Structure formats: structure tokens, C-alpha cells
Amino acid sequence: MSFKKPCYIWDPLLISQSDRLPAVPFRASMVNDLLTAYELNNNLQVIRSTPASYDDLKKFHSELYLDHLKSFHELEEDYMTNDQDEEYGIGYDCPPISNMYELVTVVAGGSITAAKCLLLGITNVAINWCGGWHHAQRFGAEGFCYVNDIVLAIEKLRLKFKKILYIDLDVHHGNGVQDAYKLSKSVFTLSFHKYEPGFYPGSGNIDDVGSLTGKGYSCNFPLHAFYTDKTLVNAFANVFPLVNLKFEPDAIVMQCGADGLVIDPHGGACLTDQGYITCLHKVLATEKPILLLGGGGYNHPNAARLWTKLTAVAAGVDLDDNIPEHDHWPKYGPDYILSIQPSLTKDLNTEQYINECISQIKCNLELLDTKTAIYLPLKRKQDQEEDIKIDSEFKIVEKQDSGEGNLKKETRLKPVKAQLVPEKDNKADVYDFQD
User: Fold this and answer.
1) Of 23, 269, 294, 359, which one is least surrounded by beta carbons within 10 A?
2) Per annotation, catalytic residue among 134, 135, 173, 193
3) What pLDDT, on a 0 to 100 scale, did the predictor assign at position 404?
4) Binding positions for a divalent metal cation (predicted)?
């Protein structure tokens, strides 16, 4: 596969709306600003994000849930949730916020736009660090996640790629994505996560392998607390090649939740950037179309460090370990370096335990029957055929034709000059999907 610059999904609205997420306020700006400080935009195709439509969101989420989100307009500070709010998961860990439906359309749109980049073949790697919200369910919000942009992106990818491998490196089990595809043979979910009594969401044990028609198409590697790079890399290096060989995916979606990093306030693992980077290298080596997403990551400087490094790896760029001065530079003290230092906390995962898990997973993979027909649980056949018809009309246009007004209405990609960070002087080519 020839190298094409990775697509980086960006838009001022995507950043500003992601900054409003209660669990990670202003994190999106911090990540984008660090990428820009390193001038990584020069090694990327910057694609302007387009908000998701109501029909896009209905590919997974219930209309009842979506319509309820529309009821949140300008909320008073003393707004108290009611029974109906809590029925849809709006409450303690997913608090109500003003104009929630708009936020959901923008956040979901980032990952759907990234998926379109892979559908069009304009890149081999598409990146949306504002996405990766893997806990949201069909009928409601859950675990800081108001919308499951991952499932919506996978559904878009399935218009072209018959088999999708979903990899989850977040410290929390990606229960929302696994639940969406627990009956499916066309999406394989592979998760490496902390699994301890009382640790959210409480799912993802090693015997959780899918249900009925999807039995064998989920793989969970439950890890004890304080797992390190050595433990993760050992688990990943032994399991990922087996899954890739057995399932033979056409495309890969990789959630790189940064809450597995050392000293994350909601984590409990002891990873550094090197553990994630090693896993990413193994995925990139498959030369399959890859969608990279964010997720958890509640130490914002470390999340920015990690995702900047992963972006550089995807782009084939080496970065100086000294963080360039920019608006958020003081937050990277006291060392002001890009690398994340390891912890001295003892890893509770023994080599014997990891080997036992690997052996069990090998047995579980024997349940996988890749010769059976692909099962499509999320949409009616008629809906899928309509989507394929629409998406087959995507075209790439690098210049605006003088007679464009006479062209048939179609989705197009054209370049416009814009600032990656509006208040800065550095400019980058930014591409729009336009109808």
C-alpha cells in the first residue's frame, strides 16, 4: 500500500463543542494546539469535519433518545434531572448540558467524516482525537459518552469494507461498541482493559466472546491494576496477530483512550506513550485502512502528549522531545518534554497470568467461523442499499470548476485556505466535504 498523508479531522466547531464535554473540558483545544505547535499539520491532510445528520445518528441511536436530547436548549445552572432524563442516561456521569443535540451531531460528525476519508481512498489512516466515545448505548448516554461515534463510523465504513476489526486500548472496557455488535460476524471487537471488582463498567471478562450468531467475534483481555507497557505489549503482540490472521479484516478502527497512561485520575494503569506506540506500529504494519480515535484521558497534558506522538507515528515524523512554546506550554511542566515517564508502581499482572489469558483466548478463537455469511444487525437491508447508492457518488475535486453550478448534486471534496488554529498565523490547507 503506497503512503498517503494521514487525514486529520478538524474544524473550529468540532474543537469548541468537544471542549464543552463535561468530562474533558477544553481537552480538545489542548490536543489540537500541541499538534499545531509541532507543525504536524504540514504532514497531514486536514479535513474539515461535517456535523452528523439526524439520519446519520439513527444508524445506531434510538429516535426516542435523539428526540430527548433535542429538548435540552439553554439550561439554567440549577437544572435538576428528572426521571425521563435518567431513563436516557442523563444524570450523574453524563450531566445535562445546553444544546446537547448540537454537541452530539458535531462529535459524531468528526468520526463519520474520518470514515468517509477511508471510503474515498484519499488516505490509509484517518484520525479524529475528538472521537472514541465507546460507552454510549443505543437508547442512552453512559460513562461520560453521549453518542457512540465509533459505532456510527463503523457503520459508515461497512458500506465499503465487509469486515471491520475494532481495537480498544482504553483502560475501560468498550462495552457500548461490543454490545452493538455482539450478534455480528462482520465486526470483531478486541479490547485490552483493566478488569477489577468495582471498576467501571464491570464488563469484558475473558469468557465474554459474543452471543448467538456473533459468538467468537468478541475478544477481551482483562488486565489487573497497574499494568505497564511490558504487559500490554506482551498481550497485544500475542493476541492481535492471531485475531488479524483468523478474522482477516478489511479495515481497522483503533480506539486509543489515554486513560491507561500513568497517573490518570480515572485510570489505574501505568502505561507510557511507548506502549501505545508499539501497538500502533503493529496495526500499521498490516497496511489496512485504519481509523484512529481518542476516548478517555483525564490528565489532559498527557492525553495531548500521547495523541500528538501517535499522530507523528502515523505520519512518519520524528518529534523533538522538548515541547515547543505555545499557549498551553506552562501546563506541561515541570519537565516540558513530550515523553511520558514510567511509574515505579508494581504491575499486578504476573507473566503466568498473561500466559494463561493468551492460552484461553487461543481456545476462544476456535469458536470463530469466518466461512459463514456476514450478519448485519444494525440496519435494514433497504437502508444499507440506499446508503451504498449515496456513498457511491462521492468524488474528489481539488479545484472548483467554473461551471460547478451546472454539475449534478453530489458530495465533493475541495480545498480551501483556512487556519488550523484560527488565532494563529500559521496556515494549512484544509479540505471540505461539501454537498
Assistant:
1) 359
2) 135
3) 35
4) 170, 172, 259
